[in-house]
Amino acid sequence: MGDVAEDKSSFYSNAEDYWREVPPTVDGMLGGYGSISSIDISGSKAFLRKFLGDGEGKTGKGRALDCGAGIGRISKRLLLPLFRTVDLVDVTQEFLDKARTFLGDDAKRVGNYYCCGLQEFVPEPDRYDVIWIQWVIGHLTDDHLVAFLRRCQKALRPAGLIVIKDNVSYEGVVPDDVDSSVCRDLDIVRRLVGRAGLRVVHEEQQLNFPKEIYQVHTLALR
Ligand SMILES: C[S@@+](CC[C@H](N)C(=O)[O-])C[C@H]1O[C@@H](n2cnc3c(N)ncnc32)[C@H](O)[C@@H]1O
């Protein structure tokens, strides 16, 4: 990832400082683009439905993990409607506190709220049917992302699936000094996924997002 994250500790602490100041709202989660949340969720639902079901080789609907969950925007409208139980992990405690009310009645079906950076988080082995990682990989260094994906693979149930949905740059690694993150191009993301020993089993571009923002791609991994 070059120089950007050479000083790893400030790369992470600057991001934590940034997110601590962001309001715990859908708009806050999406950098002022709260209005695209419905399109995002509809696209994700259609993507995930291709894999879920009861037959041989289908992904189960028991338990999902929402990574970099924030206030639970994705848990509320995508994961809790599809899975019996959902765990949330995020580095910002205030967002997880907000999730408890934001998720309403369905908060009953949240198993755990883990306040932890993904660079340190160890999901329990053999636990999840789906591990959803959206708009957060840019906060991890290359090595930490690869290591996290490896731990995620161990945490999957049979026929389980890891999904990365994130911004992709046109070319190379584009740093964002405001929130202390990077945006990688699709080839770089695919290479890191390969280094983690995972295979891309399906890939789509999210359509109908505003033209001025990064392209967003969704990758299903096993
Ligand atoms: C752009 S928001 C996306 C939230 C959610 N995934 C969504 O799409 O609504 C990024 C989230 O990542 C969290 N975050 C930032 N760095 C993190 C890290 N190293 N580990 C875990 N979460 C992190 C922030 O607290 C914030 O909730």
From TrEMBL:
Chemical reaction(s) catalysed: N-terminal L-alanyl-L-prolyl-L-lysyl-[protein] + 3 S-adenosyl-L-methionine = N-terminal N,N,N-trimethyl-L-alanyl-L-prolyl-L-lysyl-[protein] + 3 S-adenosyl-L-homocysteine + 3 H(+); N-terminal L-prolyl-L-prolyl-L-lysyl-[protein] + 2 S-adenosyl-L-methionine = N-terminal N,N-dimethyl-L-prolyl-L-prolyl-L-lysyl-[protein] + 2 S-adenosyl-L-homocysteine + 2 H(+); N-terminal L-seryl-L-prolyl-L-lysyl-[protein] + 3 S-adenosyl-L-methionine = N-terminal N,N,N-trimethyl-L-seryl-L-prolyl-L-lysyl-[protein] + 3 S-adenosyl-L-homocysteine + 3 H(+)
Enzyme class per UniProt: transferase
Annotated Pfam families: Methyltransf_PK
Protein name per Swiss-Prot or TrEMBL: protein N-terminal methyltransferase
Domain of life: Eukaryota
EC number(s) given by UniProt: 2.1.1.244
UniProt source species: Poecilia mexicana
Keyword terms, alphabetized: Methyltransferase, Nucleus, S-adenosyl-L-methionine, Transferase
Any single Gene Ontology cellular-component annotation: nucleus
Binding residues for S-adenosyl-L-methionine: 68, 73, 90-92, 118-119, 134
One annotated GO biological process: methylation
